[in-house]
Amino acid sequence: AQSVTQLDSQVPVFEEAPVELRCNYSSSVSVYLFWYVQYPNQGLQLLLKYLSGSTLVKGINGFEAEFNKSQTSFHLRKPSVHISDTAEYFCAVSDQTKSSYDKVIFGPGTSLSVIP
Amino acid sequence: EAGVVQSPRYKIIEKKQPVAFWCNPISGHNTLYWYLQNLGQGPELLIRYENEEAVDDSQLPKDRFSAERLKGVDSTLKIQPAELGDSAVYLCASSFTNNSPLHFGNGTRLTVT
């Protein structure tokens, strides 16, 4: 069975500083990987996804993530955060044996707080 | 385009009462999902529809939860009777096909007292 671990439940960071949100997964098959963002009292929005090809994936709002198969990781990074990046971030995984959005398993989330 | 619309946004009920949530997906989206999100956790899939057919309801507690998607458009999720542990956010999402990005609604926050 798949699982997703997000090692940091809360990450405070000063505005304009870089940030990395960590994600590790476990699966017996090859996977698709996703990062979603959830602003307060809103639904989730897709930030970026890895389906195949280049292991460095660029998403919206200046975020990027790198797929590392040997370390089973998919860490999310941004070189300079803004106040508006304050939100909950979820890493998610789906089996490659099925359609990419068939059964998406979400991690517990990391709360990013940007400090002015 | 209009997004996924859910109602109500908030609902407070007493335990043992019934409750229903409604979801209107993005026009043309054939796949519809209901997720449960407990406080401080990621969403967990309850049920997935392809048009009007429930193709994955393995995680739906069928003793008290039910869902329907008449005519393959709007969907309703019902809990009867509600228990204290059902307090959570219920998220609806839709996608054009089962291989397209998910679009989430803003959710319904249920509080059972």
Structural summary, described in words:
The complex is a heterodimer of chains A (about 120) and B (about 110). Chain A is built from no helices and 12 strands. In chain A, a hairpin with a 4-residue loop joins strand 8 and strand 9. The model of chain A has no long low-confidence stretch (mean pLDDT about 90). Chain A is mainly beta and about 120 residues long. Chain B is mostly beta strands and about 110 residues long. Chain B has strands at about 5, 10-15, 20-25, 30-35, 45-50, 55, 65-70, 75-80, 90-95, 105, 110. The relative contact order of chain B is 0.34. The interface of A and B includes residues 9, 44, 101 and 103 of A.
> Which band does the percent of strand residues of chain A land in?
over 45%
Provide the helix percentage of chain A. Answer: under 10%
Counted by DSSP, the helix tally of chain A is: 0
Name the poorly predicted regions of chain A: none
> How many β-strand stretches of chain B?
11
Order of helices and strands of chain B: EEEEEEEEEEE
For the report, how would you describe the main beta sheet of chain B?
7 strands, mixed
Estimated structural class of chain A? mainly beta
Number of helices of chain B: 0
Given as residue ranges, the uncertain stretches of chain B (5+ residues, pLDDT < 50) are: none
**Which percent band covers the strand fraction of chain B?**
over 45%
**Helix content estimate of chain B:** under 10%
N-end to C-end Cα span of chain A: 41 Å
Oligomer: heterodimer
Largest sheet of chain A: 6 strands, mixed
Mean pLDDT of chain B: 93
Principal-axis shape of chain A: globular
Q: What overall geometry of chain B do the principal axes of the alpha carbons give? A: globular
